[in-house]
From TrEMBL:
<feature type="transmembrane region" description="Helical">
    <location>
        <begin position="9"/>
        <end position="27"/>
    </location>
</feature>
<dbReference type="Pfam" id="PF01979">
    <property type="entry name" value="Amidohydro_1"/>
</dbReference>
<keyword id="KW-0812">Transmembrane</keyword>
<keyword id="KW-1133">Transmembrane helix</keyword>
<dbReference type="InterPro" id="IPR032466">
    <property type="entry name" value="Metal_Hydrolase"/>
</dbReference>
<dbReference type="GO" id="GO:0016810">
    <property type="term" value="F:hydrolase activity, acting on carbon-nitrogen (but not peptide) bonds"/>
</dbReference>
<protein>
    <recommendedName>
        <fullName>Amidohydrolase-related domain-containing protein</fullName>
    </recommendedName>
</protein>
<dbReference type="InterPro" id="IPR011059">
    <property type="entry name" value="Metal-dep_hydrolase_composite"/>
</dbReference>
<feature type="domain" description="Amidohydrolase-related">
    <location>
        <begin position="104"/>
        <end position="471"/>
    </location>
</feature>
<dbReference type="InterPro" id="IPR051781">
    <property type="entry name" value="Metallo-dep_Hydrolase"/>
</dbReference>
<keyword id="KW-0472">Membrane</keyword>
<dbReference type="InterPro" id="IPR006680">
    <property type="entry name" value="Amidohydro-rel"/>
</dbReference>
Length: 506
């Protein structure tokens, strides 16, 4: 009798463990699936060939301060560097010649906030959109490997790679966040030292601060990062703005991060007091911008994404139809039942899920309208006080399609109070200076990261989309090749879809 009882317990424990193991494996599979790795990677080398010597003739070149075009210029590019710019250059018989007559040459664009995840085709979407440099804001070892191989082959954009995000949870919660958020977690100084040393050794360019880090671990992170000579960038952790300004974190990943702090400061419901909040913000935003400037803190924009929340919440289908959905990795947009991080209806965490009463919906609508307006007010204050603003998209967050999203962002910035010249500066010179890289300007000795446009972007910022050629490393890709490349990425995506998207396409 006793034996039977023991056997029963053993069997049920074994079955229980087995089930737990299966759930864990399934969850792990789901978490990895949404990184987009399973989508076939297109053969990018078949769309571009290396051109060690290129001459662009008779072109309008954007001035280094982005204020005007210098007419009738000739450029000689050798092994991916600009070696000569002048008005009277002989035709170089050994070079690939590109006629720039009537066209506009701007520096390659930089998207200062992206998430490539494991979706390698995204790298080519950036180049197809004239984005020759990306700042990956939640790096992974795979991305460091991709960067290494691009440095050899030239077949991809330049990359600045921040570490996985930092969390400061103790105990089991720490393990949970490391697993589900692919984060780095520590809750004491010794572990922080170990983790930051490892981040540095792995080759990451910065430490990505995250919003839930407690004040003590924030302070310790900055101190250890300083000793290891690695910058801290990203979200504003659990400290107020006064503590943050002089903390030593020299970049904020979203204008939104600063704006959200002002909602905390306001202390009342902004859905119920929208006008009062916006009046408060109009004053407060100038004080904040002044302090950021004094403390040499740069800010990455992601304005377009904040504007999109309202539409994603209440009219998702129209929003999806307005973007280039076909090129986004299908596994990323389809998401997982584990959490609503996908893009499509039913999968999208921004969709309205509150009470189904007219009052509740109205309050939510007021909140998100006010939120978008607040982002514009804050952006304008940053611009007025000359805080360095870098254009960034948060690409691969719902509805931000890698590469394409940067052009949307430029349009949003130009509508938020930046001149077209300042807008282009925020996606070229500013990030180039921030990264201390010879990119972002058309200048002798600089990398030949450039985009040739059919129309003048200073007249209309939407002209950054009128791409004729993209120059990167020692490669050139033409409009026709870009078209073929995009088709090929679309085909690879279609092969890997579980949910048809026909009804959401343009
Ligand atoms: Zn992000």
């Amino acid at each position: 009798m006793k034996k039977l009882w023991v056997r029963r317990v053993l069997w049920s424990s074994a079955i229980g463990l087995c089930m737990m193991g299966c759930v864990f494996l399934w969850a792990d599979h789901e978490l990895n699936k949404v990184l987009g790795k399973s989508t076939r990677v297109v053969d990018f080398s078949s769309f571009t060939k290396s051109s060690p010597l290129v001459q662009i003739r008779n072109v309008n070149v954007l001035s280094e301060d982005c204020t005007h075009f210098i007419t009738n210029q000739n450029l000689l590019i050798k092994d991916g560097r600009i070696v000569q710019i002048d008005a009277n250059q002989q035709v170089n018989k050994d070079a690939t010649i590109i006629d720039g007559t009537g066209k506009y040459l701007i520096p390659g664009l930089v998207d200062s906030h992206v998430h490539v995840k494991e979706s390698k085709n995204d790298l080519f979407l950036y180049l197809a959109n004239g984005v020759t440099y990306i700042r990956e804001m939640a790096g992974r070892p795979e991305i460091l490997e991709w960067r290494k191989s691009i440095r050899k082959s030239g077949l991809g954009p330049r990359m600045f790679v921040a570490s996985p995000p930092i969390f400061s949870e103790a105990g089991l919660a720490g393990y949970y966040y490391s697993w589900t958020r692919q984060s780095v977690n520590y809750s004491n100084k010794k572990d922080a030292e170990k983790a930051i040393k490892k981040i540095k050794e792995q080759g990451y360019d910065a430490i990505k601060m995250y919003g839930f880090v407690n004040p003590e671990m924030f302070k310790i992170t900055i101190q250890i990062a300083k000793e290891n000579k690695i910058p801290v960038i990203g979200h504003i952790p659990l400290v107020d703005l006064e503590t943050f300004y002089s903390s030593g974190q020299n970049e904020v990943a979203h204008i939104e991060e600063i704006t959200v702090k002002t909602i905390d400061e306001f202390g009342k419901s902004i859905s119920k007091n929208p006008e009062e909040y916006l009046r408060f913000l109009k004053r407060r935003s100038h004080q904040i911008a002044k302090k950021l400037k004094e403390n040499k803190v740069s800010v990455t924009s992601t304005v377009w994404l904040c504007e999109s929340f309202l539409a994603q919440r209440f009219d998702l289908k129209s929003k999806l139809k307005a973007i280039e959905l076909r090129y986004a990795n299908p596994k990323i947009i389809e998401g997982t039942p584990l959490y609503k991080m996908g893009w499509l209806p039913g999968k999208n965490g921004y969709e309205y899920d509150g009470k189904d009463t007219p009052e509740a919906k109205k309050l939510s609508l007021t909140f998100w309208k006010t939120y978008a307006e607040a982002i514009h007010i804050m952006t304008k204050a940053l611009v007025d006080h000359h805080v360095p603003v870098m254009a960034g998209t948060d690409a691969n967050v719902a509805t931000a399609v890698p590469g394409f999203a940067l052009h949307d962002e430029l349009e949003s910035l130009s509508q938020s109070g930046m001149t077209n010249s300042q807008t282009i500066y925020s996606a070229t010179v500013e990030p180039g200076l921030w990264m201390k890289s010879k990119t972002g300007k058309i200048k002798t000795g600089y990398h030949s990261d450039m985009v040739l446009l059919a129309q003048n972007p200073l007249e209309d910022i939407r002209n950054t989309k009128a791409i004729e050629y993209v120059f990167f490393n020692n490669h050139v890709i033409s409009k026709t090749q870009i078209k073929m490349l995009l088709k090929s990425i679309e085909n690879a995506n279609n092969e890997n879809r579980n949910i048809e998207i026909g009804e959401y396409l343009k």
